Amino acid sequence: MAPPPQFQRSSSPSPSQPSGKSEISDLKLQLRQLAGSRAPGADDAKRELFKKVISHMTVGVDVSSLFSEMVMCSATSDIVLKKMCYLYVGNYAKGNPDLALLTINFLQRDCRDEDPMIRGLALRSLCSLRVTNLVEYLVGPLGSGLKDPNAYVRTVAAMGVLKLYHISASACVDADFPSMLKRLMLNDPDSQVVANCLSSLQEIWSAEANTSEEAAREREALLSKPLVYHLLNRIKEFNEWAQCLILDLISNYIPSDNDEIFDIMNLLEDRLQHANGAVVLGTIKVFLHLTLSMADVHQQVYERIKAPLLTLMSSGSPEQSYAVLSHLHLLVMRAPVLFSSDYKHFYCQYSEPSYVKKLKLEMLTAIANESNTFEIVTELCEYAANVDVSIAREAIRAVGKIALQQFDVNAIVDRLLQFLEMEKDYVTAETLVLVKDLLRKYPQWSHDCIAVVGNISSKNVQEPKAKSALIWMLGEYSQDMPEAPYILENLVDNWDDEHSSEVRLHLLTAVMKCFFKRPPETQNALGAALAAGLADFRQDVHDRALFYYRLLQYDESTAERVVNPPKQAVSVFADTQSSELKDRIFDEFNSLSVIYQKPSYMFTGKEHRGLTDISEELGNLSVEAHPAAEALPAQIYEANDVDLLLSTSEKEEVRGPVNNSSAYRAPDYDSTTAALVSSQVPLEADLSIPGLPAYNPQVSSAIDDLLGLGLSVAPTPAPPPLALNPKAALDPGSFQRKWSQLAISSSQEFCIEPRAVVALATPQTLLRHMQGHHIQCIASGGQPPSFKFFFYAQRAGQPPSFFLVECLVNSSSARAQVKIKADDGAAAGDFSALFQAALSKFGE
Amino acid sequence: MLQCIFIISNSGEVILEKQLQGHRADRSLCNWFWEYAMTQGGELSQLLPVIASPTHYLFQIFREGIIFLACTQVEMPPLMGTEFLCRVADIISDYLGGLNEDLIKDNFVIVYELLDEMVDNGYPLITEPNILREMISPPNIVSKMLSVVTGRSSNVSTTLPVATQSCAPWRKTDIKNSGNEVYVNLVEEIDAIVRSDGNLVKCEIYGEIQVDSNLSGYPDLTLSFANPTILNDVRFHPCIRFRPWELYQLLSFVPPNGQFKLMSYRVKKLKSIPIYVKPQLISSSGSCRMTVLVGTRNDPGKPIDSITIEFHLPSCVTSADFTSNHGTVNILADKRCSWSIGRIPKDKAPSLTGNLVLESGLSSLHVCPVLQAKFKIMGVALSGLQIDRLDVKNMPTQPYKGFRALTRAGEYEVRS
């Protein structure tokens, strides 16, 4: 077996570390002696022993061998002992399902204890055992827990239902727990019970919604007006975390008219003053979302939320302010004008962590306008002398960006030039890059800049970007810099010391430019540069040198027109982040997206919920050790079924609906996989090979998903053939909405053909190829070797159901991961087959 | 919601692990986190609070050498994670009387118990310290004594706090206190940035009203200010009723028992700062002469205590020696200088002079240190906020009422 990962960390032995097996057997013996003892003080002795056991467990030592002794000792009235025992049992029950049966008895007994605290604790532990075959023992106590007179027990029970659902969804639904929760949610006097019911129901119905229409309706009902108002009116009774939950729910609620919007905002306004930042942000999200359609009110909302956000930012720990700051950043970027008078809040404090400073600098850049530029730039200049080098660089870049935004750059240019006089290499480097950009936008400043730039020794500039910038300026303004040809010549002489191809390319161009302006002085340098360039082993440099050489050979005046054309000043530099992307992040306000500055579809890939048991086991195993087994389903499928499937489905398209076609039934991917995987699970458990990192989440998730597929779709009857609408249309907005609403109905990973990998060199071809199969691409991206595509397709005929696909292709490992979401989950299997077939033909 | 909470020492050892959901998070996550931390330069306090690992989204906070790490695999409000971890850290620190590896290891049972009540299935549950204290009593000497005397050896109260069911979740209905007193403390932190020429770049006060209430029964308190308009933005404890504040700027509330933070506020655009710090740097051929003068600028009317000036020497300084005419100067290993002055003497202005030797090749100092000042003024709230009166209703006898104020330096920095 692979060594459990926890051992890797405990190299430094702590005092509580056992010396070895002997200590555990020692503990075992002592526990046995105490098990039946009723002597006074036995509880104290037990407690000491339990503490030892738990501390071993905490350090990561496997003490599961003590399971039966621990259970024997658990007959006690001491609540601390009970708690420790519950903790232990919860940790090891999964590994010892047979022994876990022993604990059921005493847990069930505790669930009927007089003391509500013990009832609650026992019920919580019972639900946390996570042993599938013990589910039957869970239903009874949960049912009575939901009816318990004590609110604490009901709170635990409401959450317990969710735990049960994750162990066995069917047991949970069969026992009619969801509707019991619903009743509790509407009627229970205790707010925490209501909150827990709400969170459980949200999870359960979202998970059920794909398979059952009733659940989908129930999920909708959570957003119905009566319920939303029921919660809203009581919101102050809830604890802060439950308030967050409710606010999150309300942010999805669509009010019927403007009056309702104002009602909700009035009800929630005081939440902006709450001590808990999460509540404040939740409220802000509701406000922003409610008023999206009302421009003027939206503006007022910004004004209203400014103060709470700024307070939240300046109080609390750096971690909290970072989260707040990320949201402020988003708002500032959307409406910089509104914050232009608050610029002082974004001044950096010396002791702040650099991630906070970076965000602040970006905001300062964004809100700079005519009225505050001077002060902001003065402040930024202070940071350029900062001890923190990365912040100093950012600050200089910020000054540059402001200069590029503003019309009146007079003072800023002076500041930038002062940076050059500081004679610190990184300051000089950053400034040079900025001066270059500035000159591209404002050529009128060239005289002032050139005078200073000319004084910089190229020896002090080492960074490729800065050096390129300097060389570019030398070439561009060689007529104004008397020294330019000689500096360039010097650089050409040291060609071999320069390792960056970027710099070499710039050098070639600069020498050419200089040559056309001052031929006699540059001729030597040009010859040397072209010779060195032609001999360069880097293709780009070689090609450019060759190109210039031939150009000069062909005709000098043409060459001049190519190399040195009259330039127009750049008016707008390309923005780094598209506004569409920003809007999308804004829609996900108060979520992790804001922190990453990426919409969630770019980073939340895997859905890990449900089917916890099996996938968890797999998560701890090394699956990498036997890729053959893992690839098996896909390969078998590919080898046997692709042709068959394709031919039949094509035939059927022509023939019209033919049900129960045996040819079509044969390649039923779902049942094959289900069978394969279920037979593989024990196999893999044995196969796990020592020495490999016992953590391969990606693969395990694939299996997780495969299983989900197998279990949920396997017994469907042969579906009607699937034809796709060749003219399907879906706009990005509705794609995004559907994508977030629907659950994954199919997900798989398979190998792609080598020829497809080759063809992927230009991802566009894949898009055209898929279009040929009536599957449209809506978004794509990625860098080699990994690409991401979003496709959609629509079923021809009625009802028009959409299929949404997320396809991750890794060209280096030649694997594709496909996730399919469908309006009609039943057809997803067919579509998945169709999709794979289309994909496998790619590159032919 | 949250999947798992790890408590990790600053050497990377997992001190404690609390799985919150059926779907367990593997411990190897901590290994990944630790390696990530090392690649980020190993400075734990500089780590991003929210990190995307290949499998999970991690929330982490760093408190006194301990990392609190939580992970999730689903989208959730970020502050919910961060804020909750902060509460966990606060409450554990409150229970154990501090935070360090040994304390947690010695009391891990308590920590488990606390986490058990604070979060269920990944959803934060009870984080109100007063209620938790009623459910699980802290491991202090008093409770140890009590257990010896009464023979009860459990730190868990046998009855559930009634507050979990009452409609004022911060207070149970039948509290009996031997004392009958309530204290109100104004604690203000002044944040300021002062430029080298003495100009104030920014000055702001962040204040808190801390209340220590030892009242029996169900008291109803009203606190009013003489000048509530100076408050720029306020944040309230859940016990404060919103209406009276909105209409009359009155704080009307039923207090939790014991200590709590009633309200926090912000006052911006302050014009006066209590002390001045004047640094001066004169470079000449490879060395730099540094002088710092400190004195009272606007007398707050009460003595300014425990003044300390701290700064980092720039990395290009190879050695330095300082002398001062008042107080003591220490240069720590990481080039951090700390000059503790204490109180400003009546007869002279404290000054610090020193000579910095620069790296060879540097003729003058380009990076100027930022000086951070610390001080404390008892008896004054510098924002000028004044409490007008405190009324206590619903009490058979009027309690003793005490008021105190304190201002201390928060981020008080002077550039040179």
Automatic annotation (TrEMBL), chain A:
Residue ranges of domain Beta-adaptin appendage C-terminal subdomain in the record: 722-840
GO CC entries: clathrin adaptor complex; endomembrane system
Region (Disordered) residue spans: 1-24
Annotated InterPro entries: AP_beta (IPR026739), AP_complex_bsu_1_2_4 (IPR016342), ARM-like (IPR011989), ARM-type_fold (IPR016024), B-adaptin_app_sub_C (IPR015151), Clathrin/coatomer_adapt-like_N (IPR002553), TBP_dom_sf (IPR012295)
Subcellular locations according to the entry: Endomembrane system
GO molecular function, one term: clathrin binding
Biased composition range(s): Low complexity: 7-19
Record keywords: Membrane, Protein transport, Transport
One Pfam family here: B2-adapt-app_C
A biological-process GO annotation: intracellular protein transport
Subunit structure: Adaptor protein complexes are heterotetramers composed of two large adaptins (beta-type subunit and alpha-type or delta-type or epsilon-type or gamma-type subunit), a medium adaptin (mu-type subunit) and a small adaptin (sigma-type subunit).
PANTHER family per UniProt: ADAPTOR COMPLEX SUBUNIT BETA FAMILY MEMBER
General function of this protein: Subunit of clathrin-associated adaptor protein complex that plays a role in protein sorting in the late-Golgi/trans-Golgi network (TGN) and/or endosomes. The AP complexes mediate both the recruitment of clathrin to membranes and the recognition of sorting signals within the cytosolic tails of transmembrane cargo molecules.
Family membership: Belongs to the adaptor complexes large subunit family.
Protein name (database record): Beta-adaptin-like protein
Automatic annotation (TrEMBL), chain B:
Family under the similarity heading: Belongs to the adaptor complexes medium subunit family.
Pfam family, one: Adap_comp_sub
Regions annotated as coiled coil: none
Transmembrane portions of the chain: none
One GO biological process term: vesicle-mediated transport
SUPFAM superfamilies per record: Second domain of Mu2 adaptin subunit (ap50) of ap2 adaptor, SNARE-like
The keyword Ribosomal protein belongs to this UniProt entry's keyword annotation: no
Species of the source: Spirodela intermedia (Intermediate duckweed)
Compartments where found: Endomembrane system
Gene Ontology CC: one annotated term: endomembrane system
Domain MHD: 179-415
Superkingdom to which the source organism belongs: Eukaryota
InterPro entries for the chain: Adaptor_comp_med_subunit (IPR050431), AP2_Mu_C_sf (IPR036168), Clathrin_mu (IPR001392), Longin-like_dom_sf (IPR011012), MHD (IPR028565)
Gene3D superfamilies given in the database record: 3.30.450.60, Mu homology domain, subdomain B
Keywords for the protein's UniProt record, in alphabetical order: Membrane, Protein transport, Transport
Coarse class of the protein's main subcellular location: membrane
Name this protein carries in UniProt: MHD domain-containing protein
